[in-house]
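User: Hello! My lab partner asked me to get a predicted holo structure for this protein. The small molecule is copper (II) ion, SMILES included with the sequence. Please write out the structure tokens.
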Amino acid sequence: MIEFLLSKVGMRPGASAHAAEVDGLIFYVHLLMFVLFVGWLGFYLLALLKFRRAANPKADYVGVKGHLSTYLEVGVAVVEAVLLVGLAIPIWARAVDRMPTAADKPVEVQIMGMQFKWNAHLAGADGKWGKQDIKLASATNPYGLDGADAAAKDDVTCLLGEPFKLPVNRPVVCRISSMDVIHSFKLPDMRITQDAIPGMVVPAHFIPTKTGKFVIICAQLCGSGHANMRGDFEVVSQEEFDKWFAEKSKAGGGGGFE
Ligand SMILES: [Cu+2]
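Assistant: Hello! Below are the structure tokens for the protein in complex with copper (II) ion.
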């Protein structure tokens, strides 16, 4: 039902394990706003009617005598403060969000935004990330991979928007950063949005539950090519992912560090 209503306002169907929860939040926040809108509008119309000039020829300079409205105001302020402190600081996120550990066998992808492309980097068949050095970073080697390092030779890099693949029903951890300005890594179908900030590596995780081709867009105005800053990835079966991964890993570094 919620998915149907959201599809009517242009939202794509969710394709990750937590998508229904995000959709529920979006739906209930809008429902709350609708109830508030109708409630306040009703109150406004009631006030117009009740306090109209014809019914109140003489102004009342005393007004409300009870304390109910004060108590209500204080009550609302306390509830809002609890919500703000409870939900808006990281303690809450840490309490409800569990980053996949090694036991969950996540697929880890380094994501690097740059004007105006997305790059992806997976540790190779050896499961080890190649040595990275910021001094080696360039447009053709955004991760600064050291080609001389043995662990780097089999790393999988999909550069300048080259599509990459992910296995279905397995946790994915994206470690997101940027080479130049602030971008925002957005996977609309996965209900994932995380700013890509130069100098910081911020993780975001999800479990894709549907196979198919999906897009990455940039959700932060980042320059003249922002609208075209699109990336592509495909969620495939574990077998198909293994095949693709083995081929890419054998090819080595995705041709990323000449
Ligand atoms: Cu961008």
